[in-house]
Design brief:
Blueprint: E1 3-4, E2 10-11, E3 16-21, E4 37-43, H1 52-60, E5 70-75, H2 81-99, H3 114-134
Amino acid sequence: MNLRINTKLEIPSNEIHWRFSRSSGAGGQNVNKTDSRAEIVFKVSESKTLTPYQKHRIAIQDEVKLINGSICIAVQDQRTQYQNRQLALSRLASTLRELLKPPPKKRRETIPTRSSQRKRVESKKKRGEIKRNRQAKIDY
């Protein structure tokens, strides 16, 4: 089963590796005997479907911590392994979607207009006048 990220990108199932272990939390005595925790590992550096630019975009992001060039997501929220696998796949897809977004446009710096400068100074003077009127006037 391939993982569809967007219309242009689909990761084949042979590039996704799974690990299963015993989960903590809800499940009663069943937790002690079943491997319901699912961990998905996607090796970004070894992927053949990602372009070098996409690999670079993922590597420079700070949101995800790449461990040896791979993204690891562990899920143990649900009671069954199947549900945890589905959750892990959806989290990996959303993570990759966020990481591959194009960078935002840089803000073009502008100088403040003359009227905005005048309004700022007037509001500061008005505020200072209010504070001056609050002060107690002591005559000696």
